[in-house]
Amino acid sequence: MALPSSNLTRIGLAGLAVMGQNLALNIAEKGFPISVYNRTTSKVDETVERAKLEGNLPVYGFHDPASFVNSIQKPRVIIMLVKAGAPVDQTIATLSAHMEKGDCIIDGGNEWYENTERREKAMAELGLLYLGMGVSGGEEGARHGPSLMPGGSFEAYKNIEDILLKVAAQVPDSGPCVTYIGKGGSGNFVKMVHNGIEYGDMQLIAEAYDVLKSVGKLSNTELQQAFAEWNKGELLSFLIEITADIFGIKDDKGDGYLVDKVLDKTGMKGTGKWTVQQAAELSVAAPTIAASLDSRFLSGLKEERTAASKVFQSDGFGDILSSQPVDKAKLIEDVRQALYASKICSYAQGMNLLRAKSIEKGWDLKLGELARIWKGGCIIRAIFLDRIKKAYDRNPDLPNLLVDPEFAQEILDRQAAWRRVICLAINSGVSTPGMSASLAYFDTYRRERLPANLIQSQRDYFGAHTYERTDMPGSFHTEWFKIAKQTKI
Ligand code: NBP
């Protein structure tokens, strides 16, 4: 296809693997002529060919970086979608050599936010603008409308706002799933926490499945029906929808269902681990997300778990699975409520992490607005996010989602079912680390007095760390050891 009459395209995209190729086609489909480039040039030809097949979309391929950069109108905007880390630095070096003051590079990868901040500073010294933009929604999202989380240079954002507003997922009652997130690496950070929340959601759903299958003895057909039913109510979401689909898919290489043949070892790429590390750095409790990460670590120990299952089987533990008959309909309803209540706690943790980082970095993140742009396009999209947005609209300074009056009531309404599910799982020897962590988070957060008084006493006993008192101000130290010698029993 010949270049537009101006001989220049509106935007460029470098990195044509799954995400880049699909986002380029999406941008072109929305009416913005786009230049594309990839280190391995066969992917350039592949993308141009796909653009032809998918409706003669205005995608223009280039095999060398100079002609790629020079094909874009000024100020030039180039989105990079290459593997995070060194490939991003290498791509920036390749492209920036041909760019001019005022041009802008956008990294759409899952990058560590500090790398974006380092690069933004380095680019500013060359007079170039820089954005770190979280892109969520996988292949489908990139092609038909992702959730976009751009952070960094506001001027750069303004240069491409018109494109992002059209390319992002569109949610009828709340608009395009994009907003300017804030300065520096805030876009990458928000995407990282989104992924951490995604880990939590997937873990909670997997536990719901485990309880229903292992304790409730639901068949795949019954599981599919239960999840499909859940997807009509407050749990309506992309992840519940695809979970229902998964239970219906037969194995094309043998008998039975595919899900039963999939190896129980979870992969990961790092954003969940970063989320938990950041929560620890900022002293924000994120136990549900941490439990989901730990569960992925443990799932990776397949050989050890297989050996352990034999050890405990031979010692008489084995499957403690309850032999009592289970009322399937009641269990499905209890698990649904437990899942929803657990999910509220998980999102509360993610939102608190975002707020803590926003305060540390001065990003001024708008939590309600983040919930809004996650309502479409991304993996955690869910009707539930609308409730979160409304909670922050009611009170932008909400200390915790749990104390929003609507969420508080929802938790109260579900706590009996939630406790029943966890007790049943524990008594059946089925682990529910995410749901249990969520319940422990709730039970800890809601109590006025915790056993932390004893921990402070111990710390003062062995380390003279001092303690405060409930009945008078000041810092105190007691010679616990000396007194204890006289009172030992
Ligand atoms: P990958 O993360 O698999 O990266 C492949 C791309 O990086 C190819 O274009 C490859 O070029 C390029 N690349 C590499 Br590898 N090393 C390079 C180097 N030294 N110099 C230049 N280019 C280099 O692609 P992806 O799965 O499309 O993801 C892109 C980004 O988006 C990642 O940061 C990813 O974490 C993020 N993301 C992915 C998803 C998803 O569902 N896949 C979702 C959301 C975000 P080549 O063809 O020459 O090898």
Please specify the SSE layout and strand pairing:
Elements (H helix, E strand, L loop, with lengths): L10 E4 L3 H12 L4 E4 L4 H12 L5 E3 L3 H6 L6 E4 L5 H11 L7 E4 L5 H13 L3 E8 L1 H7 L2 E6 L1 H14 L2 E2 L3 E2 L9 H30 L4 H11 L7 H10 L23 H11 L5 H13 L2 H13 L13 H34 L5 H7 L10 H11 L10 H24 L4 H13 L6 H12 L16 H8 L2
Parallel strand pairs: 1-2, 1-4, 2-3, 4-5, 5-6
Antiparallel strand pairs: 6-7, 8-9
The structure holds nicotinamide 8-bromo-adenine dinucleotide phosphate.
Q: What is the annotated CATH architecture of the largest domain?
A: Orthogonal Bundle
CATH homology superfamily name of the largest domain: N-(1-d-carboxylethyl)-l-norvaline Dehydrogenase, domain 2
Q: Rough shape?
A: globular
Oligomeric state of the chains present here: single chain
* CATH class term of the largest domain: Mainly Alpha
Mean pLDDT: 96
Distance between the termini: 90 Å
Question: Radius of gyration over alpha carbons?
Answer: 26 Å
Count of spatially separate domains: 3
| Main pleated sheet | 7 strands, mixed
Domain 6-phosphogluconate dehydrogenase C-terminal: 187-481
InterPro entries: 6-PGluconate_DH-like_C_sf, 6PGD_dom2, 6PGDH_C, 6PGDH_Gnd/GntZ, 6PGDH_NADP-bd, NAD(P)-bd_dom_sf, Pgluconate_DH
Family: Belongs to the 6-phosphogluconate dehydrogenase family.
EC number: 1.1.1.44
Compact overview of the structure:
With 489 residues, the chain is α/β, with parallel strands linked by helices. The protein contains 20 helices and 9 strands.
Spell out the key features of this protein:
two-stranded antiparallel sheet; alpha/beta; 20 helices; N-(1-d-carboxylethyl)-l-norvaline Dehydrogenase, domain 2; 8% strand; binds nicotinamide 8-bromo-adenine dinucleotide phosphate; 489 residues; Single alpha-helices involved in coiled-coils or other helix-helix interfaces; Rossmann fold; 3 domains; 7-stranded mixed beta sheet
